[in-house]
Design a protein that fits this description.
CATH architecture of chain A: Orthogonal Bundle
Radius of gyration of chain A: 11 Å
Number of helices of chain A: 4
Pfam families (chain B): ketoacyl-synt (PF00109), Ketoacyl-synt_C (PF02801)
CATH class of chain B: Alpha Beta
CATH class of chain A: Mainly Alpha
Structural class of chain A: mainly alpha
Largest interface: A-B, 13 and 12 residues
Oligomer: heterodimer
GO molecular function (chain B): 3-oxoacyl-[acyl-carrier-protein] synthase activity
CATH topology of chain B: Peroxisomal Thiolase, Chain A, domain 1
Largest sheet of chain A: none
Number of domains of chain B: 1
Largest sheet of chain B: 11 strands, mixed
Number of strands of chain B: 15
Shape of chain B: globular
CATH superfamily of chain B: Thiolase/Chalcone synthase
Radius of gyration of chain B: 20 Å
Shape of chain A: globular
Strand order of the largest sheet of chain B: 5-4-6-7-1-8-15-14-9-10-12
InterPro entries (chain B): Beta-ketoacyl_synthase, Ketoacyl_synth_AS, Ketoacyl_synth_C, Ketoacyl_synth_N, PKS_Beta-ketoAc_synthase_dom, Thiolase-like, Thiolase_acyl_enz_int_AS
Family (chain B): Belongs to the thiolase-like superfamily. Beta-ketoacyl-ACP synthases family.
Number of helices of chain B: 16
Helix content of chain B: 25-40%
Distance between the termini of chain A: 12 Å
Number of strands of chain A: 0
Strand content of chain A: under 5%
Protein name (chain B): 3-oxoacyl-[acyl-carrier-protein] synthase-1
Order of helices and strands of chain A: HHHH
Strand content of chain B: 15-25%
Number of domains of chain A: 1
Chain lengths: 82, 406
């Protein structure tokens, strides 16, 4: 999967499964603030990424994630390393 | 000083209907809510009869976070509680400004536990079970979720007492308010319906034998009864101090005047006569009403041979010389288990306030014990002012409530 495909799929997951308003999703927006993520939401994010991309995220993976783009890149890297 | 305790709201989501009006109609017409569930038959159930309700679609009412933390039983309890709060005239703003508690009966979360365990076994990683599973797979799931959704700040706990859970929840709410500890408590009972919740119960061989139409399967007190029919849903009763109800200008639906309990101290599943008789007798004494003022008994009778016989003996012993009308609404609903003690307060209050007694469906032939009771097998238009509601459960837990028109 290339970057665009990953981006589209993640956005689709966020909108459909996380019921996020599409307007808040933008490359440079802050992921945590835009999605109003709490500790439980991170657990569900891990589940959804695993079931859709077959890669497992751990807590440390989120340490350097600020923007949506950081998140897309993280998944892209994980998928490429599979 | 002790407070008087009144019912100011009710809500119901049952196989007899998805709100108070539908349920009242089904009770009056004697419409059964029992179906034959082919899925259960295919899965290996000995008896595939069950009460059935649709899963409510709560997407427009609850957030994702709220929805993923609730299982089937909490969905039913939620819908019933929304109706009960509306019925009581209690708004979100009122809940925010006043201390309101919740005591709800629930005694299983089988489906949620199995779902989470299946994922864990398959993925071999706890991080992939998801965040909602823990909040769905604890017995207190109903109260932990509803207290969050409705922003409650009073007493907050689940009552697990097998098939008497809902009744004890109301009884304990009554004691809390009577003793001045709470002004309003949301009480009720919830019961999951999925096959996993009932498989091991079916395995005991105590469910109704197959071979008749579903509406004939549950036949409490009938000589040819041969087992119960499982069922489920949610039932909520808003209990409130009389003073609080008057202050709010609330419509009072009924008054709870007696609650008592007992434990059989015997077999885990075989009921006796003395335990239920003690609970009934004490509830009546506590209520201060005379035996012959009680116009109706909503029996626990589930349609099992020994359970119904022993309850009939207990009623006869307690009411010796007087025969109030008796019926078991489980003939219509099946056995709503953890919910039953609460739903039967809703059913009986609907009957009391609308001057009728719902029929004990399928009571066609009396046996030695049931012949001594005044069993109603066709809808009876009758005014009555006080009723007794019985609920008994595994482990020999017994609960009896006395409720009065006000």
């Amino acid at each position: 999967m290339n970057h665009e495909e990953i981006l589209e799929k993640i956005n689709q997951i966020l909108i459909e499964e996380f019921e996020v308003d599409a307007d808040v999703i933008a490359n440079d927006n802050n992921l945590k603030e835009s999605l109003d993520l709490d500790s439980l939401d991170y657990v569900d994010l891990v589940v959804l990424i695993e079931s859709n991309f077959g890669v497992k995220l751990v807590e440390a993976d989120f340490a350097n994630i600020v923007t949506f783009n950081d998140f897309y890149t993280l998944i892209e890297t994980k998928v490429a390393a599979k | 000083m002790e407070n008087r305790v009144v019912i100011t709201g009710m809500g119901i989501y049952s196989c007899l209907g998805l709100n108070l009006d539908e349920v009242k109609q089904s009770l009056y017409t004697g419409k059964s809510g029992i179906i034959y569930d082919q899925q259960r038959h295919d899965m290996g159930f000995r008896s595939a009869y069950t009460g059935m309700v649709p899963r409510p679609d709560l997407k427009s009412e609850l957030s994702r976070r709220q929805r993923i933390s609730i299982g089937e039983e909490t969905e039913y309890a939620y819908v019933a509680t929304v109706e009960a709060l509306k019925n009581a005239g209690i708004s979100d703003a009122y809940l925010e400004q006043h201390e309101v508690g919740i005591l709800y009966g629930n005694d299983s979360v089988s489906n949620a536990v199995i779902e989470a365990t299946d994922i864990f076994r398959e993925k071999k990683d706890t991080a992939l079970i998801g965040s909602g599973a823990i909040f769905k797979s604890m017995n207190s799931t109903v109260t932990m979720n509803l207290s969050t959704i409705f922003k409650l700040r009073g007493i907050n706990m689940t009552i697990s007492a097998a098939c008497a859970s809902g009744s004890h929840a109301i009884g304990l709410g009554y004691l809390m308010i009577k003793g001045g500890l709470q002004d309003i408590v949301i009480c009720g009972g919830a019961q999951e319906i999925n096959p996993y919740a009932m498989a091991s119960f079916d395995g005991l061989g105590v469910f109704a034998e197959e071979g008749v139409s579903p509406d004939k399967a549950s036949r409490p007190f009938d000589a040819n009864r041969n087992g119960l029919v499982p069922s489920g849903g949610g039932a909520t009763v808003i209990l409130e101090s009389y003073e609080s109800a008057m202050k709010r200008g609330a419509t009072i639906l009924a008054e709870v005047v007696g609650y008592s309990f007992s434990s059989n101290g015997g077999h885990i599943s075989t009921p006796n006569v003395e335990g239920p008789a003690t609970a009934m007798r004490r509830a009546i004494i506590q209520s201060g009403v005379a035996i012959d003022e009680i116009g109706y008994i909503n029996a626990h009778a589930t349609s099992t041979p020994l359970g119904d016989a022993n309850e009939a003996k207990a009623i006869y012993e307690v009411f010796k010389g007087y025969s109030p009308a008796v019926s078991s609404t489980k003939s219509l609903t099946g056995h709503e288990c953890w919910m039953a003690g609460a739903s039967e307060i809703v059913y009986s209050t609907l009957m009391m306030n609308n001057d009728f007694i719902a029929p004990n469906l399928n009571f066609e032939n009396a046996d030695e014990d049931s012949s001594r009771l005044n069993l109603i097998n066709q809808t009876l238009d009758k005014k009555f002012d006080i009723y007794l509601s019985n609920s008994f459960g595994f482990g020999g837990t017994n609960s009896a409530l006395v409720v009065k028109k006000i």
